[in-house]
Design a protein that fits this description.
By secondary structure, this protein is α+β, with helices and mostly antiparallel strands. The chain has helices spanning about 1-20, 35-40, 200-215, and strands spanning about 30, 45-50, 55-60, 65, 70-75, 80-85, 95-100, 105-115, 115-125, 130-135, 135-145, 150-160, 165-170, 180-190.
Length: about 220
């Protein structure tokens, strides 16, 4: 009887372990401020330099569509749109905004869900910070604060996390007449498969059970 009870307890423990190991990992968003690290985790991405985009630079809300995405701006009080004026960190055309008020909200909507998105940025106002809202999560994207006025920001979804739209908007601003912008959009579908492997775990559980049974029979 002691052997039977012990075997039942061992079996339950093994099956419990297998259940825990089989549980899918939680989907998360990982942010990057280093382009190389982003590229290493984003998989194959598409690069959009804005050079093929059209439209002017004004206080009107800006809108543009490509084969992969649509960009729309709302709540525009600053000038915004596509510029080609030489600027540190930018090449050719780039998406930009300028003024002393709150910057417009820029929403990127993809035709197919992606799991990686990044861009180069510049900002001439040390009182401004900007956030990227992805799947309801607010991520600090452009953080000047007198440290540097250029950089890179990217986000990669893991364990199945994807998104079809995201919004870049003001986190806080100080009212200085500034110029800011982004260039070199990178987006794509990273390897977002969940880490769990139920079939493998099941085989592991059966193997442990067989080992326990063999040891008990000796």
């Amino acid at each position: 009887m002691k052997f039977v009870v012990s075997s039942i307890r061992t079996t339950a423990a093994v099956l419990g372990l297998a259940t825990v190991l089989a549980a899918p990992a939680q989907a998360t968003l990982i942010t990057y401020t280093d382009l190389t690290a982003f590229n290493n985790n984003a998989g194959t991405t598409t690069l959009d330099t804005f050079d093929a985009w059209t439209g002017g630079f004004s206080v009107q809300n800006y809108s543009q569509s490509t084969k992969d995405l649509t960009l729309t701006t709302v709540n525009s009080s600053d000038n915004n749109g596509i510029r080609a004026v030489a600027q540190t960190g930018m090449t050719g055309k780039y998406l930009s905004w300028q003024g002393s008020g709150q910057a417009p909200e820029f929403t990127f909507t993809f035709k197919t869900a992606v799991s990686a998105f990044g861009f180069n940025w510049f900002n001439t106002d040390p009182t401004d910070n900007y956030q990227l809202v992805v799947n309801g999560k607010s991520l600090l994207a452009i953080n000047f604060r007198g440290i540097t006025n250029t950089g890179f920001f990217g986000v990669v979804g893991t364990n199945g996390e994807t998104f079809k739209s995201l919004t870049l908007k003001t986190l806080n601003y100080g009212g200085i007449v500034d110029l800011a912008g982004i260039d070199n959009l990178r987006y794509g579908k990273a390897n977002t498969a969940a880490v769990s492997a139920p079939a493998t775990v099941a085989v592991l559980g059966l193997g442990l059970l067989a080992l326990v049974s063999r040891r008990r029979s000796k």
